[in-house]
Amino acid sequence: MSERSRVDSVFGDVESFIAALKRLRDADVRNFTTYSPVGLRGLEGLMPRTGSPIRFITLAAGFAGAASGFWMCIGSALLYGLIVGGKWPSAYLPYCVIGFEFTVLVGGLTALFAMLALARLGPRAPEAEYDPRFQVDKFGITVFCPGDRLASMDQLLRSAGAQEVHEHRATED
Amino acid sequence: MSEVALREYNDTVLEALFTRPSRAYWAAVGLLSLAIVWGAFCWAYQICRGMGVAGIAHPVGWGVYIVNFVFWIGIGHAGTLISAILYLFRVRWRSAIYRSAEAMTVFAVMTAGLFPLIHLGRVWVFWFILPYPNQRHLWPNFKSPLVWDVVAVTTYLIISITFWYAGMIPDLAAARDRATGRRRKVYQWLALGWSSDHDQWRHYLRAYMCLAALATPLVISVHSVVSFDFAVSLLPGWHTTIFAPYFVAGAIHSGLAMVVILLIPMRSLLKLKNIIQVRHLEQAALLMIVTGAIVGYTYGIEPFIAWYTGDVFERQYAAWRAFGPYAWAYWCTILFNVVAPTFFGFRWARTKLVPLFVISFLVTIGMWLERFVIIPESMAHDFVPHNWGMYSPTWVEISITGVSLCWFLFWFVLYSKHLPVVSIAESKESRLDEAVEAAL
Q1: pLDDT digits (tens, 9 = 90+) for A123-133
Q2: Best CATH choice for the domain B6-439 from the list 1.20.1630.10, 2.60.370.10, 3.40.50.2000, 2.60.120.200
Q3: Does B88 touch chain A (CB under 8 A)?
Q4: Helix (H, G, I), strand (E, B) or coil at B60
């Protein structure tokens, strides 16, 4: 990522940060990422990528968990398939408890690991564009663009109220 | 809260983390460690001498170890209520206290998990109840409530830790950025390269929502499953269909009380008074009025059902519980759990720290007594008069019970100096909501 030409900007408040996002949308610029100390909601229309498949992954994992819970209970009961007192060896109502718990267990762990995989999180240092101030009270926008558009992006971000703007030109540009 | 600047959240919460611990802190850690050593000795003594050193004997097979198990599982419930259920409802006041409430859940469930092992006697065979493939094709009986319990409590512990850790990732990154040396390496490893970029946030918020949605029914189910340990039996005092909501309401009641007990000293010692404010504790107190009312309703329903069904065994047991040798425990339960929280109806009682602490303390004691009333007392007075008996805990049981509190506090004290005790990111989010709406 650091080899691409980019413009890094820092905003001191959320209002100018959102104003910059609106200008980027109006200019039809989609190749950018943002940094913020909090997870901001309601900005879906301004962001280049929205949503996450984690809901569906978790749902599928929950179903798989429920199935595995019932499978374990029924399978272990059928290992000794002796019919005693006219009753079938497996009893489905008590197995609902195990099925439910496995739904939550497998679904929850899968949600965590899906998040780690999709957000590319792992035991390592943050990426080069990261500024520790984004963890405190600053907001950031990094726009990736060809070298000949760096100046116009710089101007756009400054006019929206960026406190700092830094251009990084890739060597191939 | 609006007067707190964004930077101040980092400064205040992380200062508590990076200030050198005082001598009093290390003294507390030392004393709690000594208590844990004493508890380990008592457990070892019980293992060597056998279960005879505990007071459990015919007809009371489940004594204070099982009382403690149910009590500590219950303590954990407010953490999940505050963190998951209030998150789904977007209740803003949770952000200041949910991290510590979640920590309380994790440590309480860790404590609870010890008691079935202690009660087991031969602890080295505990793995017999775990489902694992083996050459003899022996599996636990999944129709048994005791096996449901193992699965439910294990799931609860794992999901609570997952939810707690997931919520902490952005704050661990803030700690990483401020730390130096070896601590920085640890926080960097725990923060998983978090850089607060948009892609991380969008996946993170979705995953957190899914975890909250899964934890919400889980918290209801866990104590329901614990109540099934008793309710599916035929014993008077246990065999009742109201037990699941009864246990869940009681669990949240005691958990909220424990949250207040822990947060009152913590906010002073860690200088977090401007973030964990009295109004947050007041909200917990207001919730306790509700849970106290539910618990009071269930206390009333039990003797009513005993009378209404006309069942002679239920009637004699209800009368014995209220007027027998353990009547003090029964009436203290009602006094502490139902009457005491009604004082939170007065504004002074829920906005002054002393009455908040005292009433919460009484509720905690009352909830332990409630479990004592339910568990050993029911076994002591069942269907057959010649099977009746009495139960009183021995010094080993009393020691292990007391040490369980020290074990719980030990972990909480360590947590308070090594991990962010307030969610920095979510506190800021509550602060920025209006500004974002206006800017859009």
Answers
A1: 888 877 788 99
A2: 1.20.1630.10
A3: no
A4: strand
